[in-house]
Amino acid sequence: MSDIESIVRELEALVGSEGVRASATSLLGVEAPFEISPADGKTLARVLELLLKNEASAVVRGGGTHDELGNQLGPVAVALSTRQLEGIEEFVEQDGVVRVRAGTRVSELRSSVESSGWDVALDTAGLSPSDTSTVGGTLAAGAFGARRLGYGPPRDCVLGLDVALATGERTHCGARVVKNVTGYDLQKLYCGSMGSLGVIEAAWLRLRPLPERVASLVAHIDSPGDPVGATLGLSIARRSTARSVALLDSDSASAIGLPSSESSAGVGFSLVVEFAGPSVAVDEDVSWTRAHCEADSAPDGVIDALSALPTSVPGIVARLAMLPSAVSRCVGELQASGAAVVAHPGLGLVHTVWSSGEGAPSDERSIVREVGRIASSVRATFRFERMPVRQREAPDIDVFGNLERGQLQLMRALKQKYDPSGVLNPGRSAGHI
Amino acid sequence: MDLFLERLISVVGREACLVRDEELFVYECDGMTVERTRPRAVVLPRDAEQVAGVVRACRAEGVPFVPRGAGTGLSGGAHAVAGGVLIECSRMKSILEINLADRLAVVQPGVVNADLSHAIRNHGLFYAPDPSSQQVCTIGGNVAENSGGPHTLKYGTTTNHVVGLEVVLPDGEIVRLGSQTGFAEGFDLVGAMVGSEGTLGIVTEITVRLTPIPEKIETLLCVFPDVVSACRAVGEVIGDGLVPAALEIVDQRTIRAVEDSMYAAGLDRDAGAILIAELDGAACVLPAQIDGVRDAARRNGATTVAVAQNDEERTKFWRARKGAFGAMGRLAPDLFVHDAVVPRAKLPEVLEKVCEIGDRYDLILSNVFHAGDGNLHPNISFDRRNPDELERVLKAGEEILELCVAAGGVITGEHGVGIEKRDFMKLVFSEEDMLPMHHLRDAFDPDRFCNPGKVLPSTRFCVESNPKARGYDAVPFA
Questions:
Q1: What average pLDDT score do residues B453-466 get?
Q2: B177 contacts in A (CB within 8 Å)?
Q3: Which of residues 11-50 of B touch A (CB under 8 A)?
Q4: Which of A225, A291, A400, B123 is deepest in the core (most CB within 10 A)?
Q5: Tell me: the pLDDT tens digits for A101-153?
Q6: HEC string of chain B?
Q7: How, if at all, do strands A340-344 and A242-248 pair?
């Protein structure tokens, strides 16, 4: 690999001085002393060509909200930022579709379309205007927050993508229409690929109508037959306007500013719910919920705080995904292991946090093994959303869990085709791909 | 019998390996009937191991293979390759598991779409993707084509309902992709597989999400003076923030064809167009939604807006739409069913131009379409025995596709590319755009044994086809 500084000088000739920043970035165990920010797709492609020519690699960054997600990176020359690839290019109000550049903040996009009665079904770290997550980064990470139940997966709002390949080609897939089977559905492949197959330049997104009403409730679970509240939570999650349904233990409730829950069952779970939709339907669902538990209006911002929780708490953070019917058992096992828990019963998701502070490496390794064991026992997939660097460095640890051999082989074959020289995010994806 | 065929028989059994001409004749085409290719053999495996055995046998012999469901596809995606083997999945027809608590089902690819919904209906659930051929088409075929249907607007297409697949790869390996949880780690290989038209592998098991049957359904029939008015009403319904379950438009020519047929529904023959709007969900929200559709319709000149009072009336409203293609069989011996998509906002202007194209080429052109999605089905009734008429039909078809793409649309919304539109991919995608598609295909099937010659235009495949030699007499189930 050529000297990094000489590469950066060549890159600066492409992106201009405003596109180069000295950076103290340390991502996933590697240093990226410079950040390169092309201002348009053509320059982005030329940056990628130059990196390829110099046999150099880059870590791709959006808003940085998921900088800690992924396996140990291989050596990189620079951080490649979509910071300057921002802006809404076209908003078709009548159709509820929008074309937006990848570096645009989701919060900015949301505020731009809200006045026309539309909403963006992307919720990485809440709906707060201060959220820094970008459209491209959210799609590349397949990231979502506490409203996943109502919003669906991020890939479902993508109609088309413009993607720059590691080999320098600029491509588009999909289109601005809501129904399309023309060619392969590459949008699905790119979403969630951690930027390993290409760099998203821009996206056509499908918007959804802004809900007429939003109502949030909080309740304390006090049912010996359902101590975690998973059964009740699942029933609520299946109401027509349920957008977020979460169960929090005492530690997690405290972390988002809710008072601890005391119950006769002694378990102390809180239920947090958000309904969004037509007023009459929201009212109906609120009434139903109150008929089944003592629920009060939730404090403002509690759902946003829930969305931000996994990326804001220190410690080892894992996400387990299982069938909804297994949530209760999983929560019980995690609690017995000493972890804090947030469960989304409608989705079958459980976030769990082990505070590490001064934890010894052997303790961390035990935690990693325990997550794997519990996931296996409830037939869950899992990932570590935050893990100390020294654990990531262990070659036998994959933060994305243990994928099947056949699946990994296909992923490697795809990586070899799309990015044969490993320019993009080397080693970050599942399987250290 | 040659050794290769004997090897196939050793995998699937004699009765599941068709080799005689009279057996192979019916497999010469799918729903795209003009272009025909007789396979070397048709095998009907019962499970993934047999599929894998057939694939390995084909690979060893250098023989390409094509997966096939019910053969209802309209783009030639399941057409055999000359000298190749057709792997027909209809014997893999078991519903393996229904998990009511978690709302999942596991099925083999040969399960008929409607049969799955029927099996779970009494539990208050259904399988949402509902192509018009659902009484016949299979879930495996739906996966291959990413099938939708009239209710795509609200419920999405097959890709929104599949969480896991078992696949026999083109090298004969069996892999599991995705997860029952819906949160598989790694690349979204299930998403890439759905809609790949059987070119990346053969699906042998599908895990799907089940959807609760809505509490209530309301169906409206709105009568308009013309198609453009109906399209504008659709645009306003969507722009007002409503998400109906279905928005379907039928034009006057189709209405008259239906009323002259056994599907007659008592519609006004002088109506310019009808809009069928279906709303479903919590009962409490539907009255306001009915008002929303009614108001949008009235603002755009609807002369009648009727709400079905019972299931019988609902069925009657839908008859014009569901009987449309059957009714067109009375207009001419052959029917060319187009399938293209345009942005909804462009529907009025595109429809006007589509009708102008039909008039200019002196053709019987009628329109039936999923207006909520912008998914057009301009249908041209003709007689392909008339070479001049056939030529005009093909030219009109190309113009329609070019028109739709120029309006920001695409060349297929649900029928797929297959053979039919392979050479039109260049209207939508450049060579650079298709490069990552080739990468995807190469990663799964570098030697191009699995359904070669479909989807991507190339000169390096076995099948060559001149679109100008084609006429279309498919009576579609779309």
A1: 59
A2: 407, 410
A3: none
A4: A400
A5: 999 999 999 999 999 999 999 998 777 777 899 999 999 999 999 999 999 99
A6: CCHHHHHHHHHHCHHHEECCHHHHHHHCCCCCCCCCCCCCEEECCCCHHHHHHHHHHHHHHCCCEEEECCCCCCCCCCCCCCCCEEEECCCCCCEEEEECCCCEEEECCCCEHHHHHHHHHHHCEECCCCCCCCCCCEHHHHHHHCCCCCCHHHHCCHHHCEEEEEEECCCCCEEEEECCCCCCCCCCHHHHHCCCCCCCCEEEEEEEECEECCCEEEEEEEEECCHHHHHHHHHHHHHCCCCCCEEEEEEHHHHHHHHCCCCCCCCCCCCCEEEEEEEEECHHHHHHHHHHHHHHHHHCCCCEEEECCCHHHHHHHHHHHHCHHHHHCCCCCEEEECCEECCHHHHHHHHHHHHHHHHHCCCEEEEEEEHHHCEECEEEEECCCCHHHHHHHHHHHHHHHHHHHHCCCECCCCCCCCCCCHHHHHHHCCHHHHHHHHHHHHHHCCCCCECCCCCCCCCCCCCCCCHHHCCCCCCCCC
A7: antiparallel
Within 227-256 of B, beta carbons closer than 8 Å to A belong to 235, 238-239, 241-243
Chain A residues with beta carbon closer than 8 angstroms to that of B437: 173, 183-184, 186
Alpha helices of A162-260 — where are they, by DSSP H? 186-190, 230-237, 250-255
- The more confident residue out of B467 and A396 is A396
| pLDDT one-digit tens code per residue, A156-213 | 999 999 999 999 999 999 999 999 999 999 999 999 999 999 999 999 999 999 999 9
Instruction: Answer whether B433 touches A (CB < 8 Å).
Output: yes
What is the distance in angstroms between the Cα of A371 and the nearest Cα belonging to chain B? Answer: 15
Nearest to B186 among A184, A418, A430 (CB): A430
Share of chain B above pLDDT 90, in %: 87
Residue A171 has its nearest CB partner, among B285, B342, B433, at B433
Partners of residue A209 in chain B, C-beta under 8 Å: 241-243
In chain B, which residues have their Cβ closer than 8 Å to the Cβ of A416? 443
pLDDT digits (tens, 9 = 90+) for B79-94: 999 999 999 999 999 9
Closest in B238, B284, B425 to A280, CB measured = B284
Smallest CA-to-CA distance from B73 within B415, B472, B455 is with B415
Predicted pLDDT at A417: 98
Check if A277 contacts B (Cβ < 8 Å). Answer: yes
Closest by Cβ to A177, choosing from B145, B241, B341:
B341
- From A184, A382, A400, residue closest to B440, measured CB to CB: A184
Which residue, among B145, B150, B175, B186, has the nearest Cα to B162 in the 3D structure?
B145
The pLDDT score that the predictor gives to residue A12 is 95
- Best of A93, A179, A213, A403 to mutate (most B CBs within 10 Å, chain B): A179
Strand partners, B223: B274, B304
* ipTM of the complex as predicted: 0.96
Judged by a CB distance cut-off of 8 A, whether residue A368 touches chain B is no
Tokens found for residue A204: 């056509």
Which of A156, A192, A406 has the CB atom closest to B175's CB atom?
A406
- Residue B458's pLDDT band, with cuts at 50, 70 and 90, is confident
Q: Hey, are the CB atoms on A175 and B374 less than 8 Å from each other?
A: no
Q: Which residues of B touch A164 (CB under 8 A)?
A: none
Over residues A351-363, the pLDDT tens digits come to: 999 876 555 566 8
